[in-house]
Structure formats: structure tokens, C-alpha cells
Amino acid sequence: MKKADFICIASVILFFSPFIISDSIFDFYWNFNKEHAYLMTFIKFSILAPFGEMLGLRIKTGKYYTKGFGLLPRAFVWGLLGITIKMAFDIFANGVPSMLISMGLNIPENILLQELSWVKVFTALSIGITLNIFYAPFLMVTHKITDEHIQQTKGSIKGFFSPLKFGEKMINLNWDVQWNFVFKKTIPFFWIPAQSINFLFPDDLRILIAAFYSIILGVLLAIASLKSNDR
Predict the structure, then answer these.
(1) Does 88 have pLDDT greater than 80?
(2) Most buried of 32, 97, 114, 216, CB within 10 angstroms?
């Protein structure tokens, strides 16, 4: 381990320790999170997801930060993506149980609020599958395109707000890696199980868990980038 790794570990401990040590700080966070769910979603993702990308950068380059990384643009993008994740969670957590009921299945409308059961597990799995089929590809492609835009504009705030040629970047994506690794492997083998488990937890915890998952996403995208460079 390098000196930077010890600094990273120490920084993580210092960041989270007040929430563990102080009940008043934790209670403030918990209440603020309930009253301002979407604002807190933006904050969580703008902090945790770029940290995941820094870990990914460490895997690719051996460094947590390089010139042109664009920490602020990445934090802004992830905050916005986090809001769409929260929206998707609200939509699918309510819509999928209703869909299952309309199919004739005996699913209580408040199944996600009930104690753990096979019916709840089945419902959570159904949510995880539909969420990742209909929403996850949009998230992953959007993130990839904005990520390339940040790199091409050298990580500057001014450059980030320059015109983004979305269609052109869609055409030039490495669809081999995007389809064969990001879609075909990470979605069924990681994201569906992970998000299905997430929906077994109370609503107040799901976005926090999803934000921590975004750290893992940063690592997975780093692996995908290495695969792309090898081709």
C-alpha cells in the first residue's frame, strides 16, 4: 500500500466517524434525510459516487487523482444521476407491486413494509429485474457519455457546460464493451441481485445503500475501461 492509500482510508474513517460517535449528528442526518429526500440524494451521490471513480482511477493509473479528472463536474453529474435513481426507486417500488397484483398474484399493496417473507423476496426481485432492464442501461450510457465529455473538456467546469454532442458520442461508444461487459455481465450478475436485496430494506436506507453501490460502480467502470483499452 502506498501513502495515498493510508490517507484515503484515514479520510474515510474521519468522514464517517462523527455519524457513529455522535447521536445528535446522526439524528440530524436522519431527520434531514426524511424531510429533504431528494436534496440528500444529490448530496450522497455527489460525494460517494466520485469517490468510487477515484478508486477506479487508482486501479487504472495507480493514482486517486490526476490532472483533468474533473472532480466538481463529476460530483455535479452524479448528483443529478442520483436524483434520477431516487425517482426510479420511487416509481418501480410502487409500480411493480401494482403490476404483480394486476397479473393476478396475491401481493399485498404494502408488501415492502412487511416482515421478511418469500412473497417480499419475490417482489423485491421483480423490482430489481424491471428496474435494471428499463432504467439501468439509460443510467450507464448517460454516465459513460458525460464521463467522456468531462475527459475531453479536461475536467473544467467551463468546459463541462460547453455543447455536448450526445448523438455523436452515442455512435462512437465502444458498444462491444458496453454490451458484452457492462450490460450482459454487470446487470444480471451484480446489479439485479444487489438492487433486489436493497429493496428488502426500509425506504429510508435504499438510497444510501444505492449511493454506496455507486462506489462499486466506479470500480466496475474502471475494469470496463481497462477492457476497452485492451481491444
Answers:
(1) yes
(2) 97
Contacts of 21 (CB under 8 A, 6+ apart): none
DSSP codes joined into one string, 36-51: SHHHHHHHHHHHHHHH
pTM, 2 dp: 0.89
Q: How is residue 119 written as a grid cell?
A: 412473497
User: Rounded to an integer, what distance in angstroms lies between the CA atom of residue 202 and that of residue 38?
Assistant: 16
Query: CA 143 to CA 137: how far, in whole Å?
Result: 10
d(CA 62, CA 185): 25
Closest CA to 187 of 147, 144, 220, 145: 220
3-state secondary structure of 116: coil
**Distance in angstroms (rounded) separating the CA atoms of residues 148 and 150:** 5
Phi-psi map region of 62: left, alpha, beta (phi>0 left; psi -120 to 50 alpha): left
Task: Give me 110's grid cell.
Answer: 404494502
Quick one: cell of 155? 475536467
CA angle, 22 then 24 then 30, to 5°: 105
Cα separation, 153 vs 148, in Å, equals 9
CA dihedral 144, 7, 40, 220 (to 10 degrees): 30
| Residue 114 confidence (pLDDT) | 92
Going by C-alpha positions, the residue among 99, 126, 107 that lies closest to residue 195 is 126
Q: How many CB atoms lie under 10 A from the CB of residue 74?
A: 23
pLDDT at 227: 59
Residue whose C-alpha is closest to residue 3's, from 55, 64, 54: 64
Query: Cα(75)–Cα(45) distance, rounded to whole angstroms?
Result: 7
